[in-house]
């Protein structure tokens, strides 16, 4: 790589990291705060919460990275143009490839990195997060650790305790069980305890109220009563893995006996092709950015800031691809769109670079902007007290 190419890549990488890290930190913080209940509800330690937060971070990289790359490329090239560096490069007779080649190579490298992230690292982290959350909530005692507060264990089952004691002891239990629409049960007990294996809640000195569909209420007192938690604990301790949680090898050859796959096989097929298409974004977005601001332009030329134009085009490609993915989950015939959208945009950008043609707004849009510019200048001149 030539000295000038290294210079350009170094500046782009610096600006890329400057944009990537703060945005990634903000999004990561919002995602972590959504799971703060892992500590408040299940009594997990701060170390467990930080481990969970660390595993969430890689799942966000593939989404933020392409847009940070757009910012890095457009901001660097715009600054070089304002400093007349691009004009000097053109005046020296250097080919346009001296700017395009290193940046496209950077796009290829980051596309490979994105493929590794979405294909292997991200699914592995998602699995670990789901397993950790499922394990944390598997124990009923942990779920109701906060005293004097109703907790929904599952739809239709609520538990409240007055006091939590040592050795898994509980005082002042209230359980409302309306999972069976034919029968509503309310349990009261002075004290109780969850067994070590979490399979049963043993209540002592209490009563159970049973309400029939006709409104009749039956009250039964008991000295000792065991509330079965075996199915509940097993279900809460088992993580359910969906298409986004599966690694690339599973998506290439799904298990036909997998329960989630049998429910929605279209999700798995669409997810497989989404990962391949998403990996193209860094390269495509670099090509789009170069098309918009890869050449020297006059400071007097009226145009939108190149970063705004590049981000709008990149967001359009991103959202169209995601919309095609959601449609392909129900209709497999739309899967080619996942590749057609980014590839078509990238090819158009590369052709524009090859032919050295600048993208232009339609004539009526440019005329409208010109008229708006004249009107704004007249208004400013009028307020300044001098003729336009």
Commentary on this structure:
The chain is α+β, with helices and mostly antiparallel strands and 388 residues long. The chain folds into two domains: 252 residues, no CATH class; 89 residues, no CATH class. Helices cover 60% and strands 14% of the residues. Strands 1, 2, 3, 4, 5, 6 and 7 form a seven-stranded antiparallel β-sheet that branches. Strand 1 and strand 2 form a beta hairpin. Helix 1 crosses helix 4. The longest helix is centred in the N-terminal third of the chain and has 41 residues. The chain is elongated and about 95 Å long. The mean pLDDT is 82.
Q: What about the largest sheet?
A: 7 strands, antiparallel
| Total number of helices | 15
Number of domains: 2
Helix percent band:
55-70%
Strand element count: 7
Order of helices and strands: HHHHHHHEEEEEEEHHHHHHHH
State the end-to-end distance.
Answer: 52 Å
Low-confidence stretches at least 5 residues in length (pLDDT < 50)? Answer: none
Proportion of beta-strand residues: 5-15%
Q: What's the pLDDT, averaged over the residues?
A: 82
The gyration radius over C-alpha positions equals 30 Å
Which shape, going by the Cα principal axes?
Answer: elongated
* Structural class by helix and strand composition: alpha+beta
Membrane topology: Multi-pass membrane protein
Protein name: LptF/LptG family permease
Transmembrane segments: 12-29, 49-71, 103-121, 272-292, 304-321, 333-353
Subcellular location: Cell membrane
